[in-house]
Design a protein that fits this description.
Blueprint lengths: L1 H9 L2 H5 L14 E10 L2 E11 L5 H11 L3 E3 L8 E7 L13 E4 L5
Antiparallel strand pairs: 1-2, 1-4, 2-3, 4-5
């Protein structure tokens, strides 16, 4: 399912390219990820929330813009069973101003209350 979701997210490249992309200086080795909270529907994955996990600076305008592009989106996911709660971690590039879609990871999040 991760591969399919990454492909679906990749289709938003044009929208994400409009986000502010000024690089942000930071320490080498910093890590940051945009975290997409999602729920599965029949053959779909819907983003119900987004967050940021970062141990260094990122371009806040880029992150805000990317979050607005992704929140509420519904993506095709042919192997999805309705009612699953998932988290998709999408790394933010080393300059804090891009998403590394191909490095995204998916994990179960358990039921949300």
């Amino acid at each position: 399912m991760r591969r399919e979701l990454v492909r679906e997210l990749g289709e938003l490249k044009d929208e994400l390219a409009r986000c502010p992309a000024d690089p942000v200086a930071g320490p080498p080795g910093r890590r940051a990820a945009l975290v997409l909270d999602a729920v599965t529907e029949l053959d779909a994955f819907r983003v119900v929330g987004t967050g940021l996990e970062a141990d260094g600076p990122v371009n806040d305008q880029f992150v805000s813009c990317a979050r607005s592009v992704l929140e509420g989106k519904r993506f095709r996911a042919t192997q999805a069973n309705p009612g699953m709660h998932l988290r998709l971690f999408v790394p933010i590039g080393p300059k804090g101003n891009s998403l590394a879609l191909s490095a995204a990871s998916l994990s179960p999040n358990g039921p949300q209350r």
